[in-house]
Amino acid sequence: MSGCTTPGYAYRLLATDGHARAGVLTTPHGEVPTPTFMPVGTQGSVKTLVPAEVAATGARVVLGNTYHLWLRPGPEIIAKAGGLHRFSRWPHAMLTDSGGFQAFSLSDRRTTSEDGFTFRSHLDGSKRVLTPEVAMQVQGQIGADIAMQLDICPPGESPRAVLEDACRVTTRWAHRCLAAKREDQAVFGIVQGGTDPSLRAAHADELGELPFDGLALGGFSVGEPIPRMHETLGLVVHKLDASRPRYLMGVGTPLDLVVGIGAGVDMFDCVMPTRNARNGQAITRTGRVVIKQARYREDFGPLDPTCACPTCTGGYSRAYLRHLFIAKEILVLRLFTEHNLHVYGTLVRDAREAILAGRYAEFTREFLSAQEERPKGVPSA
Amino acid sequence: MSGCTTPGYAYRLLATDGHARAGVLTTPHGEVPTPTFMPVGTQGSVKTLVPAEVAATGARVVLGNTYHLWLRPGPEIIAKAGGLHRFSRWPHAMLTDSGGFQAFSLSDRRTTSEDGFTFRSHLDGSKRVLTPEVAMQVQGQIGADIAMQLDICPPGESPRAVLEDACRVTTRWAHRCLAAKREDQAVFGIVQGGTDPSLRAAHADELGELPFDGLALGGFSVGEPIPRMHETLGLVVHKLDASRPRYLMGVGTPLDLVVGIGAGVDMFDCVMPTRNARNGQAITRTGRVVIKQARYREDFGPLDPTCACPTCTGGYSRAYLRHLFIAKEILVLRLFTEHNLHVYGTLVRDAREAILAGRYAEFTREFLSAQEERPKGVPSA
To answer: Does the annotation mark A205 as catalytic?
Structure first.
């Protein structure tokens, strides 16, 4: 069974367990076991790591940010290099966002019209126009396996009229993106609708009619309360066409992943594991280690005794990692990034195995009961 | 033949070629083929790299800075961790400086007396007293294989009276350091005397009488003209006791290494390869690549086609490295550091092979003729 429409792409559903799914996404750069977590390589680099280290965490898709790459180094350079895979030496699958979210949130003096976004670059103030056609052209030059349609992503808890309008414009842009896409590049549509289940379901149906290779959920984790996001996911995700991969954009914490997978999500991306690493925060399966805390000053144990990553098995003590962080040594950013991505990679791998074994509910219970701090507002199982 | 006096240490001279020497320094953490270049791990980390990567550049000694480690994390923490080797996971030999140079140059409100240096920490303003005894105690706690005596290092081109005084005090401190040293830790004496060959020779003789495990040349590359340093090295190095390792402190460029080795130096350290890497400057055997330059914008060739390091053989193009540097991506600092240390490691390895083959003069000529910019003031062969 495959709902992908672009040659070279396929999604194969291997097993379901409740709403949770285990599958395989085939791309021109190899197979991706799903559910999967996609590390963010904003500017063509998963910060601090070489590609082999990223792959060793289990990741098989890396995300590039079109907004950033468009402004610098520019898509012409990347195209001349043979595409972002060759430019950045990442051999596995790659996905780019449309640039819309960053154009919306990062740039100066942005205006939105039916045609697209007009904004000024946060780097040099140059005026840019991001239309659905430009988004597809730039993503085509970058050359990821999967491109994303341009969409309107309103802030969390926006009024219903704003959400409805976002859905309407996003659908019109969906048609324009599909008309403008590179033939050999997959494109995913983006379902909006905030935390309103009926809007979400209607938009999912609308986009599901179009020949997208996958369907994404945008507009989550944009300011709404997390329990409300979890609740909406449980009501909405399983309504997305089951024959295509489902991608929850910009989410999230390990808990968000466990809840999202349980709701039927196949793909996630989030800056959290890499960004928190650079802030000295190690994520573990059961909580987190804020390494600057004085209690680690003479703690000569490993960062996370349950973890098999190079940082945790390399003999580096919490005391040493704390020293490096406080002394602003770059090495620790790398050691933490590797660790955090390994935790995410292991989490989705274990979730997949649980789904294949028909024990995802048990996996979820075990995950929740192991949390050091009781998560707030977890939906009842 | 071994002039080392501490059990577990030995220097074995394998071959000479003119003044140039090839040898092996034995330490409790393994053998060090000399000449050798020692990367600087100021705060217990060769910035951006894990120990295995440092070792892969050929380095077999890493230098730690006593001043920095004394202030942070503090020698007690390092001692509790089992010493800096275990704390930082470096399995090969290690050397610490005395802290004097940094106390002299980095700290606030420093005063110098016969007893030592009194200064305030650049980190928290705390008052510290660095005497020869304290220097040996702190270095003993850090636990490197080789400690350095506390010395007075006057600026380049200081008046003769200042240089003479530095030699006198350094000799008195030499006696105190030897009396205070850990029995199982090697200590090197530091010859001063600026660019005055007669002062240098006299001080070398004076310190050569003491049971140091090696002799270092301090007070070079501290502001004097480089040709003058090269000239002085040619007149002075071969006068240092041939039975002990000779260490030229804080030097230098690839050219400095080639000249220094020709003069009889066995060991070098310098922040240049690691610091320049972080400034986007790749050092090559024939010159340098300043990666931010516009000419590399669409240069899809490797950083240094003659280099076998992971950066140069990993498929990263100059255009990609330039993009990473301009986008302030941490990865490039690491890729450049690895490259630069590899160039240094390869240079000393090739120099050693040339000495063993009796062709060091030819090696020097080849090195000089390959330089893209003609070095100024190279002493005639």
So the answer is: no
